[in-house]
Amino acid sequence: SGVEREAGWVLWPVFGASNQMIAALILLVLALYYWQRKRPVLPLVIPMLFITGVTLISLFLHLRGFWTSENWLLLGMTMLLTTLILWMGAESAAVYVKLRRERAG
What we know:
The chain is mainly α. The protein is 90% helix and 0% strand.
């Protein structure tokens, strides 16, 4: 019983980060959709940036703890989530640049 509760507490930050990543992705997709339709996007972009920033900070803080405790599974999952969030940001920037060029041209 105690071991299961301890495992749950160890997994909780990674689970929470994955949920926050999904929320940020949904806000990102909605912001790009609204921007393409020339609708206001600030109410979507501000919370998306906040959620993404907090999630990245949390993941970076947990990376060190998982490394020092030699918890390779959680370290790998955390690195994967961090990579996916950074990739999501790079892809969204590329889409933004593309849509902005289409608008200008």
